[in-house]
Amino acid sequence: MTAAWPLYGHQAAEATFLKARDNGRLHHAWMLKGPQSIGKSILARRIGALMLGAASLDASVEDPVVQKIMSDGHPDFRWLARRPDDKGKLKQNIPVDDVRDLIAFFSLRPALGGWRVGVIDSLDELNTNGANALLKTLEEPPGNCLIILVNHGAKPVLPTIRSRCRVLRLSPLSDADVATALRPLADGDVDVNAAARLARGRPGRGVRLVSPASLAAANAARTLLRAAPSIGDGALSAFIKLASVDAVSFEAAVTELLDGLSEAAPQSAHAATVWLDISAIAAEAAALTLERGQAASRIAGRLLTLDTAA
Q: What phi, psi does 232 have (nearest 5°)?
């Protein structure tokens, strides 16, 4: 049967966890560290279900433990992440009160007689108060409790937190593994291998971008980047049109440009400057303060000035 939460390319990380569990040396806190969208949250769910009695890491949706977790009805499992505010907008951070609720959850005895598992997704979204509140539980963990911290590496982790966790480092996947992850989700018209290349080792990114429109926008962005700064009118028009189709196409185009510029940045200070400018324009579009067509036009304008030799 198909796993409830399929995971590809992270067999070594899973084997490390299983070895610690089977040898009776299971640490109370595990930090899953690596770039965003490579599968850390999926691994956290797989581990959580296993510790609460699922048949295996690859347990299917028919597993009773998996069903309880999927329905948010397992009494011994908590998932802590950012929530929308009263206006429906996602909060900037995980509130400290939510962290305190998780700590209170850990202080209780397991309802089903086994373990209690709590996941914080992600550590990057805890503010200083939240991180300090968590620290006491990491220092004095209750028995039969497992804490899983997802860490994207977007900001430094307090040394006092890092030192109290067993770290599992996850790396971006190969294009082949990303393609395998995307294939069941793709329409028949999509070039899955092209989508995998666009994902740059991050299947979560690929899931968002796997569509004919997004791949066309990415190809237009790649064409623009290769030609810059001597970009023809046809390439400019095609980029602006394709990047403006929808939010996913815009993200695909920007992702392709930023990745390409980041590769050039170590040898070109100007490429790094253009990277920052395009990031700022994309942020305006994401905040809905700039229409996508206007944003794409401004981005194209910045590429007209690109001099990777500078």
A: -75, 160
